[in-house]
Design goal:
alpha+beta; globular; five-stranded antiparallel β-sheet; 14% strand; Phosphorylase Kinase, domain 1; 20 strands; 43% helix; kinase activity; 4 domains; Aminoglycoside 3'-phosphotransferase, Chain: A, domain 2
Length: 615
């Protein structure tokens, strides 16, 4: 993700744009408002030739008069620091600023808006300039050398698999069989002959609306923009409109159904196109697949509805009668393989042998369960983390995974901890005082077990040791990294962020997540200030140690704010250094969410302080 830079601000000011200011960043580049109705976009990876083709693309699109505004490239310029374009600024408010969620008022208007945009693009006629763009990081236009949409799509799938299949095969069982079946079903579906414009990334920030959520403008073309079957754009939109929130499945289901009803697209075809999108974009942000988008794509390929179509039996071959896809191939049966815990089965404790993976939740890394083990990508700090996990078990802290070495694909192998993980928003049962008490005691036990591990091991971690380090902090002690059984903490996972620091450094973040000390509009928030303050007090009482000191408790609001400020700074530095996972997090507004929570905690610091110190 391109970042705003002072050099660009100075460059545009020197050109006479004295009102220049940063406007937005995205996967394709950084945008600056120049004033007088103009914006400049600094492109992250497009060449001047590509930008001239994009100018021709936008000129053709505008000539066809879609029912909303689209970008107009007025100038393509090159500099020693890279190319930029000058464009007319588009009107409207980003749809994500209108609470575009199914649990909030206005969702029906949001769905109507999205369908109106898809309808507008479906009415754009195929034309040569619209076929001129490359997609993803491809060097040539998507349509180069192809006569039909299916030819171009299948060729793209083949190229992406040639480059990235080993990583994907490690996470998706029967990948080659799935791909072959996907091609068969799409070829039988008659997907050629209705080419229209495909935007390829219709998410809320890219749709600008008026006060009634009517589309005024659409922006950010280029990531997967081309011409082809408009059902593909509908499927991608339904899938990516809300990829990571707790509402993602509801959004997919409702937008897919709405597109099927309005446009007559077969629902199963939309599901197949979601699988195709997952195949071609799985490594779009990280060649090694070490990011959240890769995990999302793996999860999409392993969805029950996708697996039913690609590996299923009767239901999969019934597509002909329910979707209009003519299916002439024989029934495919799927062998089933049980994957018992290797320790219980007396097998190799590394769990080698036939993999039956299950994709697990992971905020940044791709995490796959194989039997009684978990496989995760390694990093430079993995050896130190394994050393820590071994130490914890040797010193009686058995709630951590065991480090079991590495598999033939180079992934680390950890023991799987069974139970319920506290994914946000926290389930009511895990808001119980017993769960909170056990979490606090578990964190204290973890810290106590690492006190004698610290000396001589200040380096080798993902994060540098902090001044005044007392213990090895977990670094991300939150419900989503805790495993509960019958409402009590029984496991702690994901030690990648472990590093030497003070006890309070870890506690501050734990309180933020468990109380939770969040803005009322945060989806993870529950309880008012009094309840959150009481939960902090209970956590401190259960942890004991330094948290029994009234002076320490009085400083907790500022300690939480400092911890979150550090997190925001780190996310931004990682994104600026090219970390695709955190670039996506920033694009989704994670840093803004933390900053809002910081402001909330400090605005109510005195009220919180009174609750923390109450008898």
């Amino acid at each position: 993700m391109e970042q705003h830079g002072q050099a660009w601000l100075e460059r545009f000011a020197a050109l006479g744009h004295h009102e220049v200011e940063p406007l937005a960043v995205g996967m394709e580049g950084a945008v600056y408002r120049l004033g007088r109705g103009l914006v400049a976009k600094v492109w992250a990876r497009r060449t001047p030739d590509e930008l001239h083709r994009m100018r021709e693309f936008h000129d053709e699109l505008a000539a066809q008069s879609p029912p909303f505004a689209t970008p107009r490239v007025l100038r393509v310029a090159t500099t020693p620091d890279g190319p930029y374009t000058v464009e007319a600024e588009l009107a409207g408010t980003p749809l994500n600023e209108r609470d575009a969620r199914p649990d909030l008022p206005g969702w029906e208007e949001t769905k109507r808006c999205v369908l109106d945009v898809l309808d507008g693009f479906a009415r754009v006629r195929d034309a040569a300039p619209l076929r001129g763009l490359a997609v993803l990081d491809e060097p040539r236009p998507f349509w180069s050398g192809h006569d039909t949409w299916s030819q171009a799509l299948f060729a793209l799938i083949d190229r992406r698999l040639d480059a990235h299949a080993p990583r994907l095969r490690a996470a998706v069982p029967d990948l080659d069989r799935r791909v072959a079946r996907l091609r068969e079903l799409l070829a039988a579906a008659g997907i050629d002959g209705r080419n229209a414009l495909i935007h390829g990334d219709l998410c809320p920030p890219n749709i600008l609306v008026d006060g009634d959520r009517r589309p005024l403008s659409v922006l950010d073309f280029g990531f997967l923009t081309t011409v082809g079957d408009p059902a593909f754009d509908a499927a991608v939109t339904a899938a990516v409109f809300d990829m990571y929130s707790p509402h993602a499945e509801t959004v997919w289901t409702e937008l897919r159904a709405a597109a099927a009803e309005r446009f007559g697209y077969p629902p199963e075809l939309l599901t197949l196109y979601r699988a195709a999108y997952a195949l071609v974009t799985s490594n779009a942000y990280s060649p090694t697949g070490e990011d959240g988008h890769f995990q999302w794509c793996v999860a999409s390929l392993l969805r029950p509805d996708v697996s039913e179509l690609l590996l299923g039996t009767t239901e999969a071959t019934g597509i002909k009668s329910t979707t209009g896809i003519t299916n002439t191939t024989d029934t495919v049966t799927t062998p089933t393989t049980d994957a018992p815990d290797p320790a219980e089965a007396g097998e190799d404790p590394h769990g080698r042998g036939p993999e039956v993976p299950e994709v697990l939740h992971g905020g940044v890394n791709s995490v796959v369960r194989v039997g009684g083990t978990v496989r995760r990508p390694t990093a430079p700090w993995t050896p130190r983390v394994h050393e820590l996990l071994t130490h914890l078990h040797a010193h009686g802290f058995t709630a951590a995974p065991r480090a079991l070495g590495f598999d033939e694909d180079g992934r680390e192998i950890l023991s799987y901890l069974d139970g319920e993980v506290g994914h946000p928003p926290l389930a009511p049962a895990l808001r119980d005082p017993g769960a909170l008490d056990s979490a606090a005691r578990g964190l204290r036990a973890l810290h106590d077990a690492t006190a004698d591990f610290l000396p001589g091991r200040e380096d080798g971690w993902q994060f540098p040791a902090r001044a005044g380090a007392e213990v090895i902090c977990h670094g991300d002690f939150a419900p989503y990294n805790c495993v509960f059984t019958d409402g009590l903490l029984t496991g702690v996972i994901d030690f990648d962020t472990a590093h030497p620091a003070s006890r309070l450094w870890d506690v501050a973040y734990a309180l933020y997540r468990f109380a939770p000390l969040t803005h009322p509009d945060n989806v993870e928030n529950f309880g008012g200030l009094a309840e959150q303050g009481a939960r902090v007090r209970a956590f401190c009482d259960a942890y004991g140690s330094v948290l029994l000191d009234p002076a320490v408790r009085a400083g907790l609001p500022e300690a939480v704010a400092d911890r979150l400020r550090w997190l925001v700074d780190w996310m931004r530095s990682e994104a600026a250094a090219g970390n695709a996972a955190f670039q996506r997090h920033l694009a989704e507004g994670h840093d803004a969410l933390y900053e809002r929570d910081i402001a909330h905690v400090l605005a109510h610091a005195e009220e919180y302080r009174a609750h923390f110190l109450a008898d």
